[in-house]
């Protein structure tokens, strides 16, 4: 761990020493594979949600119904996407066991880029200059945020009082989000569900870390059980928000929110509650604020200027659909070469859902 007051020479030696560790050669590829699994998993889950909406003739913008959630289990694309997301989580945890956070977390942002290219190819909405700028803000902001955190954060034993504070704040967050969803869900759009899922998953990541550490130290008692219950409940709530977000927004927008908000919330918990940056200079906190603001701004800008969102809201005349009116036409927005390269490798998703009304 790099401590405050480290000189430039010491910092250089530390970073060089990191790459002298052979385990890095395992951790980095695992993080890349996890990012790829997350990208394809998001695309397939999004496809499954759209298919269920079509079969039930009911959109899930205001929240998926119980019947729609059950139907998702019968969609091959959604099931495959769920398996891929599970593999992404396993790869991420494995990568963290081999490589430091400063390397693993920024690599996860690759999933946003891959998902953008996949969705561009499948939906026909090419990234615009504004959407590319928004993605750059997301990736750059989270990279800076995690880098500063890795330089100054120190892992400390978590007291029962600190853990109870985390659980009480999570309970408050769940109550607030539940009230907002219950009273305003007919007016909510993708951004609410994305932010809500990111916030909840930030707490879930923190609890997962706590549980693993306590079990490893043989400290399995009632508070650990309570953390496990909270983790499972938070995971279910976050998953519901994510699936609903797929029904009201493109998959790369969902991934942008998760890869930005989730780690920021987890690190803020570590800084403010778990006291993992004790002794960090004022400049570090200023860096946290600037980097976090850049990343969150990128998410909000992407929600506003994403070409698919703009097209579906009729704000600009981008052709969509596969009818005669759009047959043979190609969107004229940017990044055509990149998406054409993707199309040569992956012309169509390998899992297709047939429109079987009996399901």
UniProtKB/TrEMBL annotation:
The keyword Oxidoreductase belongs to this UniProt entry's keyword annotation: no
Transmembrane portions of the chain: 23-44, 78-96, 102-120, 132-152, 164-184, 191-216, 222-241, 253-274, 280-303
UniProt-annotated location(s): Membrane
Keyword Cytoplasm attached: no
Membrane topology listed for this record: Multi-pass membrane protein
SUPFAM superfamilies assigned: Multidrug resistance efflux transporter EmrE (SSF103481)
Bias type Basic and acidic residues, positions: 350-359
GO cellular component: membrane
UniProt superkingdom: Bacteria
GO terms, molecular function: magnesium ion transmembrane transporter activity
Key words of the record: Membrane, Transmembrane, Transmembrane helix
Residue ranges of the region described as Disordered: 314-359
InterPro entries per record: EmrE-like, Mg_trans_NIPA
NCBIfam families: DMT_1
PANTHER family xrefs: CONSERVED INTEGRAL MEMBRANE ALANINE VALINE AND LEUCINE RICH PROTEIN-RELATED
Name this polypeptide is given: Permease of the drug/metabolite transporter (DMT) superfamily protein
Organism of this sequence: Microbacterium oleivorans
């Amino acid at each position: 761990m790099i401590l405050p007051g480290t000189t430039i020479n010491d910092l250089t030696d530390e970073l060089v020493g990191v790459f002298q560790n052979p385990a890095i050669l395992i951790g980095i590829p695992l993080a890349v594979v996890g990012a790829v699994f997350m990208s394809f998993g998001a695309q397939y889950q999004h496809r499954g949600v759209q298919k269920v909406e079509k079969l039930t003739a009911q959109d899930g913008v205001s929240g998926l119904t119980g019947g729609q959630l059950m139907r998702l289990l019968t969609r091959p694309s959604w099931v495959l996407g769920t398996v891929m997301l599970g593999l992404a989580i396993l790869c991420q945890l494995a990568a963290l066991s081999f490589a430091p956070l400063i390397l693993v977390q920024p690599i996860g942002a690759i999933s946003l880029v891959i998902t953008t290219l996949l969705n561009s190819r499948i939906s026909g909405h090419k990234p615009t200059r504004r959407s590319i700028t928004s993605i750059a803000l997301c990736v750059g902001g989270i990279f800076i945020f995690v880098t500063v955190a890795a330089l100054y954060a120190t892992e400390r034993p978590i007291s029962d009082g600190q853990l109870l504070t985390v659980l009480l704040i999570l309970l408050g967050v769940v109550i607030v989000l539940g009230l907002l969803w219950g009273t305003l869900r007919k007016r909510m759009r993708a951004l609410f569900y994305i932010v809500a899922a990111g916030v909840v998953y930030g707490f879930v990541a923190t609890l997962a870390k706590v549980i693993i550490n306590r079990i490893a130290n043989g400290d399995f008692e009632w508070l650990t059980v309570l953390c496990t219950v909270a983790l499972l409940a938070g995971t279910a709530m976050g998953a519901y928000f994510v699936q609903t977000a797929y029904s009201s927004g493109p998959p790369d927008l969902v991934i942008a929110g998760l890869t930005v908000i989730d780690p920021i919330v987890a690190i803020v918990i570590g800084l403010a509650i778990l006291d993992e940056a004790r002794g960090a200079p004022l400049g570090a906190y200023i860096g946290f604020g600037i980097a976090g603001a850049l990343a969150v701004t990128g998410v909000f800008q992407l929600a506003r200027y994403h070409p698919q969102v703009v097209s579906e809201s009729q704000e600009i005349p981008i052709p969509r659909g596969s009818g005669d009116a759009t047959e043979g036409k190609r969107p004229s927005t940017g990044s055509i070469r990149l998406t054409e390269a993707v199309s040569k490798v992956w012309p169509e998703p390998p899992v297709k859902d047939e429109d079987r009304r009996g399901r």
